[in-house]
User: Which sequence fits this backbone?
């Protein structure tokens, strides 16, 4: 199934939560440490507990790369645990000159088999094109991110009076010929979300920054509902996977994503 | 030894060539394919042939990641072949929110043990800070890249009339408290190099784009020599490592880097 179709079908069921698998040996419950593969056991428990409720899973490459080749193996094994009809996101934030981006695309889309990836726009269109050539995948390009320093460059004002991130959104709209583009827009920027949401056109939106970073799931839902728009996902990592350091961690993850889905149903119906 | 000291000492010897290990199974000489580890055998031959002449080695992560965990193993094994006194660059172009950049820094600087890394500036200072905290490493932040689409965003004109990449260079200068910052500036942008070189201050400069991409090693040398400046390296990948698909590939690599070093000696003395 095409990446976009997977997501749209979950969105139609009013599922908007992307579970972020920022899996860290220092944060998983202690009883798992004695397992042969503690991190995989953790991911399996979280996926099993949330798969009926999740719109997508996002794997944050940094947490796995810190373990070297073992981490890359862990990504492969984790992907095998995710049901085929749920969108998988390689949160890898890649972007390089053409022949190098081709190799990154090969890694993420072919070697690992992800449905989608996050990308840095800085180097411009030819650094993104190798990813766009995969018409059945989804490419989330950074627009306005959730961190405080997003003001440093993303919010630079251009000579025509617009912000850099707005220029990027407008470029990504032009790159969307294969209907395989999306943007990353931090949930911490609620005012900017309201002001810019119409410019997103039919781009899929991935919103990180809810929970530990201060964004509100409910506020984001309301903005999209007001626009009659369902084509988005809100990533939550720490706010779902690390609710307890006890054996009940996966049960609490399940309850939390159910609560979020109920909230979405209330707002959207 | 601190990363910067490694490089400065090579620069003092008038060595400015960074050998780019963009190692690709489809491009290495056929006779190596029957080796148990063809890619490692290729890297070993290139490193052995060039180590007396190289100022640095740059490992382009994409080419290794395309192979998954095996590629990450190959990076580790390749690093072991590089003499300790030569700068190693993880050309990984990372950059993410703070807690994620921390994990990337852990991967590249601690797990792999690289001396330096290339970074995307788009998300701003807090996305770079975790790398800056390693005071003995070197962080090359993208300023103006060598690809054609660098015009898309890097050359956007800001409201104060400067280009975005100039704003980034000025920010990186401010981030350079630990003397562990550098910039990436494409050798294809010779006019911009001449116009901006004074703004680089004491930032180390990594210049890709010579050879296959159209930049000239000689032209770059002359610009730096005119400024009485030695703190830079020019990356060459395809123009050194893929000069022949025959058994003489490493001999030709050696001759080419010697030729380039001779050119540097002629210009700088």
Assistant:
């Amino acid at each position: 199934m095409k990446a976009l179709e997977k997501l749209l079908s979950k969105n139609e069921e009013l599922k908007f939560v992307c579970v972020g698998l920022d899996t860290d040996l220092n944060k998983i419950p202690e009883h798992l440490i004695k397992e042969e593969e503690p991190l995989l056991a953790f991911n399996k428990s979280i996926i099993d507990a949330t798969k009926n409720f999740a719109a997508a899973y996002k794997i944050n490459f940094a947490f796995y790369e810190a373990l070297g080749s073992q981490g890359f193996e862990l990504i492969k094994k984790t992907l095998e645990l995710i049901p085929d009809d749920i969108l998988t996101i390689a949160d890898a934030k890649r972007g390089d000159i053409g022949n190098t981006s081709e190799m990154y695309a090969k890694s993420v889309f072919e070697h690992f088999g992800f449905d989608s990836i996050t990308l840095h726009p800085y180097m411009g269109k030819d650094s993104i094109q190798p990813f766009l050539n995969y018409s059945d995948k989804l490419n989330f390009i950074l627009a306005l991110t959730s961190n405080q320093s997003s003001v440093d460059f993303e919010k630079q004002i251009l000579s025509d009076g617009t912000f850099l991130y707005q220029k990027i959104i407008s470029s990504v709209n032009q790159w969307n010929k294969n209907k395989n583009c999306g943007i990353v827009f931090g949930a911490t920027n609620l005012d900017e979300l309201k002001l810019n949401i119409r410019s997103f056109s039919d781009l899929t939106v991935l919103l990180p920054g809810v929970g530990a970073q201060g964004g509100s799931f409910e506020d984001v839902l309301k903005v999209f509902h007001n626009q009659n728009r369902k084509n988005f996902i809100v990533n939550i990592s720490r706010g779902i996977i690390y609710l307890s350091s006890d054996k009940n961690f996966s049960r609490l993850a399940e309850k939390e994503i159910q609560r979020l889905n109920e909230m979405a149903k209330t707002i959207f119906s």
The longest strand of chain B covers residues 87-94. Strands of chain B lie at 17-21, 56-60, 87-94, 116-119, 138-144, 181-185, 204-207, 232-236. Chain B has one domain: 3-268.
